[in-house]
């Protein structure tokens, strides 16, 4: 069992969530307050064009971004799949995300939604290349480890190592398994959206890792998930392969 906490305009909420999540179950979403649009109006039509473009772009590399429209009707968007997700599953997740965020943020000119396998974000404001600190939430395992101080240190060391590795890779993604005891392994994963520079990717990840004790002190698993980067660690396998 997991709990998660999100931070948005200083709002904090606690919600229970099963740790086994499928594409059909969003982790969470945010809707912006930057204005509304009309059904089948110019913005709505531009959104449909945008997501169609994202669908076609995302399978080869797991990332896509685009803009459609002009002036007040412009729609900017990006889609990101977890770095180990197969291309067909990636596309399916993005299609599901685009439909679901449109329902949950109905007639809203901005929104972001996360699944275990992908995320999708759109806005009438240009956000490419800027670290998104506003849309962020925490998830953590309800169970604690026996030695929190030592475990936190080992987890931070692994995630920091992955931050450096991801920010210098073309996919802005890294995952790794490390033995932390005689019969225990620590699984870690980090990722950034590829509209960031390498420097901003590392800063985003390092800032998120800096919240490790706040979100997940001594917990057997946890995540900090944001609109520009995320990390996750567990004591069980949750990605297809390390790199």
TrEMBL record:
Residues 1-23 form the signal peptide. InterPro entries: CRR_secretory_protein, GNK2, GNK2_sf. It is found in: Secreted. Residues 25-127, 133-238 form the Gnk2-homologous domain. Coiled coil: none annotated. GO terms for cellular component: extracellular region. CDD domains: Gnk2-like. Transmembrane segments: none annotated. Keywords: Repeat, Secreted, Signal. Belongs to the cysteine-rich repeat secretory protein family. This is Gnk2-homologous domain-containing protein. It comes from Stephania cephalantha. The lineage of its organism: Eukaryota, Viridiplantae, Streptophyta, Embryophyta, Tracheophyta.
């Amino acid at each position: 069992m997991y709990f998660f906490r999100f931070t948005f305009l200083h709002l904090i909420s606690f919600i229970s969530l099963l740790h086994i999540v499928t594409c059909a179950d969003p982790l969470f979403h945010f809707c912006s307050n930057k204005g509304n649009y009309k059904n089948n109006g110019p913005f709505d039509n531009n959104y449909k064009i945008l997501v169609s473009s994202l669908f076609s772009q995302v399978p080869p590399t797991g990332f896509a971004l685009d803009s459609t429209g002009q002036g007040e009707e412009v729609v900017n968007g990006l889609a990101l799949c977890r770095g180990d997700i197969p291309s067909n599953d990636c596309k399916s997740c993005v299609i599901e995300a685009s439909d679901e965020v449109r329902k949950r943020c109905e007639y809203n000119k901005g929104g972001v939604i996360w699944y275990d396998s992908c995320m999708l974000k759109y806005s009438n404001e240009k956000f490419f290349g800027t670290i998104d600190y506003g849309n962020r939430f925490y998830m953590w395992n309800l169970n604690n480890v026996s030695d929190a101080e030592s475990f936190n240190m080992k987890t931070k060391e692994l995630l920091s190592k992955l931050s450096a590795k991801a920010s210098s890779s073309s996919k802005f993604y890294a995952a790794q398994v490390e033995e932390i005891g005689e019969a225990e392994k620590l699984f870690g994963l980090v990722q950034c959206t590829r509209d960031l520079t390498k420097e901003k990717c590392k800063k985003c990840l390092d800032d998120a890792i800096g919240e490790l004790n706040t979100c997940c002190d001594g917990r057997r698993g946890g995540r900090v998930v944001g609109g520009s980067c995320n990390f996750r660690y567990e004591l069980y396998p949750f990605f297809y392969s390390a790199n």
